[in-house]
Amino acid sequence: MGEKEKNLSKEKKEKRDSLKVSRRSFLKGMGTTAIAASMTTLPTPALPEAEAALPPGLKEATVQLNVNDRVYRVKVKSHWTLLDVLRRELGLTGTKKACDRGNCGACTVLIDGRAVYACSLLAIQVQGRKILTVEGLRNGDQLHPIQKAFSVQGAYQCGFCTSGQMMAAKALLDKNPKPIEKEVRLALAGNVCRCSAYPKIIEAVLSAGEGR
Length: 212
Ligand code: FES
Ligand code: FES
Description:
CATH architecture of the domain at 137-212: Orthogonal Bundle
Order of helices and strands: HHEEHEEEHHHH
Number of strands: 5
Radius of gyration: 23 Å
Mean pLDDT: 82
Bound molecules: FE2/S2 (inorganic) cluster
Low-confidence stretches: 15-42
CATH class of the domain at 137-212: Mainly Alpha
CATH superfamily of the domain at 137-212: [2Fe-2S]-binding domain
Largest sheet: 5 strands, mixed
């Protein structure tokens, strides 16, 4: 092999090695991102006792869902998510569908007072639970203090994340009526705002707490 050919094959090898490294670093980066994402998705659907109650092989069932203090009897397929049933079967479209895979919090609802992602739960798992959606926040004509605070502070831009943010805020304020900023940030860490309206959102939750 001549000198020129040797240099060429050395160059090729170096290029190949550098590609290997960048692919490895890329995968490493992906791993870190996945871990970070799972750490920030605070509201989780961990209801293992409900999951354990699912009869094996069940394909379809009529379930009773208690949503916003109203009981709905609804026929569902066993793979339908709570989010799809709320929006499509019950017409409660205030709960938003964005990532549909437990990453963004747009679909946050409360189940027995706890913030969960409705896209990550099956409707069949939540029979007998108290489900609260954004439609259940207001009291007749009266907006909930959290809704008022979001409106007064202008805590939204496109508004797509707003119902999820408000539900996460409700879960927090019900337990901790006067949170400090750090606690608000932590409670809302699983709710992504693509418009980056975070400062106003935090302000709104703090002021809703103060007004209670
Ligand atoms: S739509 Fe459920 S977490 Fe994004
Ligand atoms: S206001 Fe647009 S995603 Fe939050």
